[in-house]
Automatic annotation (TrEMBL):
It comes from Mycena metata. It comes from the Eukaryota. Residues 667-687 are annotated as: Disordered. This is EF-hand domain-containing protein. Residues 667-684 have a biased composition (Acidic residues).
Length: 1165
């Protein structure tokens, strides 16, 4: 240990006090310290391992926590500099442990009789907790988008600075404990401690300066913009400012959502950022600890496995040739025989494998033949088999000869060259190194021969991938059906998940992966090892996913499952197992209302997998380009083509979506025990039974079948049993602007004072808030209070005068002082239940007695009615609730730009504000949550109306104006049915084909609905023409006997039974053409009893506007082409006319010349 410390003293010293000294350095020097973080950490961990052998109590707790957190951190592709600055202080803490190298015996007692182990154990546990807590907090911070980090930068940085101080304090405590133990005396130790206290203050003062030096230019620009615009809350609430903020951040709207579960629009960004501002950072850190602890457990297991593997296969690298470094005997023999050095061409490696084993089997067969030719000799021993059996067969009797694996030679040939190359050549360079050969050999399952392992990768892996491909298709198809069954409260979240980019990428992955032929399972031996490996890997994968609760929050977490191996090896089983869990969650969504983040976690886990896919594709691209290979072409057959669309970006391709159209491939049919119910064949009881089997414990959050988080303010902030200070307790008031109530309405505060510290909570119709503050009563009878609201809400300062605190709030001032927007708070001790009846200042000033009597009488009448539950009281309360919910829904629809929408009049806005002022905050908050939940149940189509530009909800109308891939089309809401907008190159006219849908149409449905709608429309239009022709012939005959034919020719509405006339609607789903007139469709009438078994109100419809044949959709290009054609035609006609006129003028000129000549001759005569 001492030798190690001496050899690495410079690295260890640089880690110590690095952060404190960094604050005095320039940015370049600071970044150099951060750049060497991984290298310094590696040195520290090696030294701490050695220290742990001397003092195990250090290794088991603090050192292990440090190693786990740092190892997980190093696996990230990108790290935040401020996070690394915190980790550098963590390094600094660990360096002081090297002072323990001077103490040889952990049981050695100090002057007070306490052993070193006993003195330090509690401290080590505390340090381990600090390290793990910090690691979890940094984990949360790293997962946030740039804007999410920036809008709450002050809070996040204060927490990071807090961890820096914790580590500095821990270091001080260790130093103090060591000084006491080494008999330097308490006085000397205390003197040293005083010096360290000064050092701590020095660090505290410098950490803020260091963070400012680590700010990027983009961070500084965005933070200044936020400050200038009045704070984060003001920026988020103003759509134009938010748009500008997003542009300045450099993030796309889609990138702002790390789960990739939103629509990638401004409304989704606003919702996400408002949620970020509202959430309590400490609560988020606390919730993440559970997942982070799971990561630490898996990281610990992975490190233990790596140590075990290294211990089992010690390689002699100091002597002998290159082949001596190969751990497998057969590979070593091949390497030696071929005379290979450090690496070999992958193609040559595979061919040499075939030659080696062919020759080995030939020698073995010859030996067997010779043995059998000797009369009376014993049969050859099983030990003479050139290879061990691929998988032990439990059905073999004891002592029987195991089957050799010569069958595997059939798969080691040119036909299977590519998958073998990919399996061994891990980095895709085209060369197999000694390291890669060893990793390939050591990665085979225990008991497998190398030949069986190669055969699996030659053909078995492809069969396994194809098996997973078929299973995933079945899951996606079942999930698409389930999106129509989920409870109304989950419909938006489920649709957003299934229509999101992650499911699109899963489908693209499946579509482009080349399938193995079904006959691969004709070989029982290959099938056996494939099934064995698949079962073994799934068991391991399930255990790891269960350990992480199926939440893959970043690629570092994913690598805890896959290790350093290629993602293509795991992508299919990972997606399959994740989707199996997601399918079960969607089944739960059919019977429970789920937490809003449940589907976001699902999308985020899939997004993490595809992030790893993109990283792998980027690496392959660089390798292929360096070898002058056509990247796109090579990716077309690499890993069976699964990475094709990960290169060069990808777009939605609904027309070719295969979820609905996929049929199971021969040899890969559904297993008998595959549970994908309920489906259309299940009746109601069996459907309920299937859904009832689902265990809600698999959810990340408890189901929200009942309202939660309402009427819980006093539970979160319980009032004190006895009031120790005049400020303690409940205060209710309003935020005023120019004497008028502001949007927040009535606000209830619960305050608790402890010395000069102030804490408490606030409740309004909007939300609950926790806050802290300061109290200054140095002016005597006046008490000045300062409330620090959560980031984004600013600070408030005011004075308590008598019993009425008035707070002047000026947090909306610009950073340069160019403007200041001032609000005022008026808070009183009035009980919240009667606050609505309290007189105004103007009423009180006019007549004190009348104001007080009026307040007392109104409050008493209300309380009596409330206690008696009188009908006037209940009727008024019901009306207020109904009106509050109705107006809140309307205002939210307008703010979110949803459809259908009705603008809020000034009277509507006044009514809503009056209710917010009058109702108790707890009631108003509950009613507000009900309104939002009602909107949560409305179908959101993820599209904007091309006429009114609002987001389409309730009903979507898809136009005939659609590109060839069904990717882009003109969309209209129900309010804009008769509008004729243009979009891109499309020009819509009212007679165009139109599809109406009452549920979100996913790409898998779109692939068949659009063609089917066109077929139905063409058929119905033709039948209309045929009916018109028949009716015209019947009219000519005008015979009464033709009335039945006339009636048969008419098309009847399935809801009212009356004949339909254009325009009308036809069902796309029903086998027999089902017609709905415009009136019945508008009223959403149910079908008549004779039609109700076939047609459902959820079926999509196609409009028949007239009987004219379906025309091709007009585009601006086609209109320009048509106009150009007309102009050219006009030019031709004008040219012809000009030529004709020219001819006539020439003829006329000839005639006139002749006449002139005749007249001239006559005059001469």
């Amino acid at each position: 240990l001492n030798a190690f410390y001496t050899a690495n003293s410079s690295a260890i010293s640089s880690a110590g006090n690095a952060l404190a000294s960094a604050a005095n350095l320039d940015v370049k020097s600071i970044e150099n310290t951060i750049t060497t973080f991984a290298e310094t950490s590696a040195v520290l961990m090696k030294g701490l391992d050695a220290l742990g052998q001397l003092h195990p109590f250090v290794e088991v707790v603090a050192v292990m926590a440090f190693k786990l957190v740092i190892t997980l951190d190093i696996t990230r592709r990108q790290n935040n500099k401020k996070v690394l600055a915190v980790k550098i202080q963590m390094q600094d803490l660990m360096t002081i442990l090297f002072q323990l190298r001077h103490i040889r015996d952990p049981e050695e007692k100090g002057p007070d009789g306490t052993t070193l182990k006993d003195r330090m154990s509690g401290l080590m546990e505390s340090i381990a907790k600090d390290i793990t807590t910090c690691g979890s907090a940094c984990d949360v911070y790293m997962k946030k988008s740039f804007l999410a980090k920036t809008v709450k930068s002050k809070i996040y940085e204060s927490r990071l600075a807090g961890y820096v101080m914790n580590f500095a304090n821990d270091k001080k405590e260790i130093g103090f404990a060591l000084k006491v133990h080494t008999a330097l005396g308490v006085d000397a130790a205390n003197k040293k401690l005083d010096g360290q206290d000064e050092h701590l203050k020095n660090i505290e003062g410098k950490i803020e300066a260091l963070f400012r030096k680590l700010d990027t230019p983009r961070e500084r620009e965005v933070q200044k913009f936020i400050d200038d615009k009045g704070g984060a809350k003001a920026c988020v609430d103003n759509e134009a400012t938010l748009q500008e903020l997003v542009l300045k951040s450099g993030e796309s709207l889609a990138d702002m959502d790390p789960t990739h579960s939103g629509n990638g629009d401004l409304v989704s960004a606003k919702k996400m950022l408002n949620r970020e501002l509202a959430e309590d950072v400490d609560d988020v850190f606390k919730k993440n600890m559970k997942l982070f602890d799971r990561k630490m457990e898996m990281q610990s297991k992975q490190m233990a496995d790596a140590i075990s593997l290294t211990g089992e296969h010690i390689i002699n690298v100091l002597s002998g040739g290159a082949h001596e470094k190969i751990v497998d005997a057969d590979l070593q023999a091949i390497w030696k025989e071929q005379g290979w050095k450090g690496s070999v061409k992958a193609r040559h490696f595979v061919l040499a494998l075939n030659d080696y084993y062919t020759e080995k089997f030939t020698v073995f067969d010859t030996a067997v033949a010779i043995a059998e030719s000797n009369a009376g000799s014993a049969p050859p021993s099983p030990l003479m088999s050139p290879t061990s059996p691929a998988v032990a067969d439990p059905d073999l009797p004891a002592g029987a000869k195991p089957e050799d694996d010569r069958w595997a030679l059939a798969y080691i040939n040119i036909a299977h060259l590519q998958p073998i190359l990919e399996a061994v050549d891990d980095d895709g360079t085209g060369f197999v190194s000694i390291k890669e050969a060893n990793e390939f050999a050591l990665s085979r399952p225990k008991g497998w021969s190398l030949l069986s392992w190669v055969a699996f990768w030659a053909a078995g892996w492809h069969a396994s991938v194809t098996w997973y491909k078929n299973r995933i298709y079945n899951l996606l198809s079942a999930m698409m059906r389930l999106t129509q069954r989920v409870k109304a409260g989950n419909v938006q979240a489920a649709d957003t998940y299934f229509a999101g980019p992650t499911i699109q990428r899963v489908e693209l992955l499946l579509r482009l992966t080349c399938s193995a032929p079904g006959k691969v399972y004709d070989d029982a031996r290959l099938t056996r090892i494939t099934d064995a490996f698949q079962e073994m890997e799934e068991k391991k994968l399930l255990a790891e996913l269960e350990g992480l609760a199926y939440e893959l929050d970043d690629t570092a977490t994913l690598r805890l499952i896959t290790g350093p191996r290629r993602i293509e090896r795991y992508v299919y089983p990972l997606i399959y197992r994740l989707l199996k869990r997601h399918f079960d969650i969607m089944r739960l969504a059919c019977v429970h209302v789920l937490h809003e983040t449940e589907f976001e976690v699902m999308s985020g886990s899939l997004a993490t997998i595809f992030k790893a896919v993109d990283e792998r594709t980027g690496n392959l691209e660089a390798i292929f380009k360096s070898t002058a290979i056509n990247v796109k072409e090579h990716l077309g057959h690499f890993a069976f083509g699964m990475f094709q669309l990960a290169y060069g970006g990808h777009q939605r391709d609904p027309k070719n979506n295969t979820i609905y159209t996929f049929d199971e491939e021969d040899g890969f049919e559904t297993d008998e025990d595959e549970d994908l119910g309920p489906d259309s064949d299940n009746d109601e009881p069996s459907t309920k039974a299937i859904l009832a089997r689902m265990d809600p414990n698999i959810l990340h959050h408890k189901p929200e079948n009942e309202p939660s988080g309402v009427y819980n303010f006093e539970k979160l902030h319980p009032p004190l049993a006895t009031s120790a200070d005049p400020l303690d307790g409940a205060w209710i008031g309003q935020l005023l602007v120019d004497g008028e109530s502001f949007d927040e309405g009535a606000i209830l505060l619960l305050l608790t004072r402890a010395g000069d510290k102030l804490s408490g909570g606030a409740e309004s119709w909007m939300d609950l808030l926790s806050f802290a503050g300061m109290v200054d009563d140095s002016e005597g009878h006046k008490v000045v209070i300062t409330i620090d609201w959560p980031d984004g809400y600013g600070d408030s300062e005011g004075k308590v005068e008598g019993s009425v605190p008035t707070v002047k709030k000026s947090d909306d001032a610009s950073s340069d002082g160019s403007y200041e927007e001032v609000f005022s708070f008026i808070f009183r001790r009035t009980p919240s239940a009667v606050f609505r009846f309290r007189y105004t200042d103007a009423e009180f000033a006019k007549n004190h007695a009348r104001a007080r009597w009026g307040f007392a009488i109104a409050a008493m009448i209300d309380q009596v009615r409330q206690r008696r539950f009188s009908w006037p009281y209940l009727k008024k309360r019901f009306a207020e609730r109904k009106n509050f919910i109705k107006l809140t829904k309307r205002q939210t629809i307008v703010e979110r730009k949803l459809t259908p929408w009705t603008p809020m009049s000034s009277n509507d806005s006044t009514q809503l504000q009056t209710l917010r002022d009058a109702l108790q905050p707890s009631d108003a908050r509950f009613y507000h949550s009900v309104a939002l939940f009602e909107l949560q149940k409305v179908v959101n189509y993820g599209q904007k109306c091309d006429s009114c530009t609002h987001r389409i909800t309730d009903v979507q109308l898809l136009m005939q104006c659609m590109d060839d891939q069904f990717r882009e089309c003109i969309n209209l809401c129900s309010e804009c049915l008769d509008q004729t907008p243009t979009r891109d190159t499309f020009v819509h006219v009212r007679s165009h084909l139109l599809i109406k849908t009452f549920r979100r149409i996913h790409d898998g449905d779109l692939a068949w609905i659009v063609p089917e709608a066109r077929r139905v429309a063409a058929r119905v239009k033709k039948s209309l023409e045929d009916a018109k022709s028949l009716l015209s012939r019947l009219e000519e005959k005008k015979g009464s006997g033709h009335s039945k034919k006339r009636k048969a020719a008419a098309k009847l509405c399935c809801c009212c039974g009356k004949p339909v006339s254009c325009p009308f609607w036809v069902c796309i789903y029903c086998v027999e053409d089902t017609y709905i007139c415009v009136d019945c469709d508008t009223k959403r009438l149910k079908p008549l009893p004779n039609n109700e078994d076939s047609h459902l109100l959820t079926h999509s419809l196609v409009e028949i506007f007239n009987s004219a044949p379906i025309s091709e959709p007009l585009t601006t290009d086609s209109k320009l082409a048509e106009l150009e054609s007309k102009v050219l035609s006009l030019d031709s006609r004008m040219a012809a006319l000009e030529e004709k006129l020219e001819s006539r003028f020439t003829s006329l000129e000839t005639v006139l010349t002749g006449i002139a000549e005749k007249l001239s001759s006559r005059s001469t005569a």
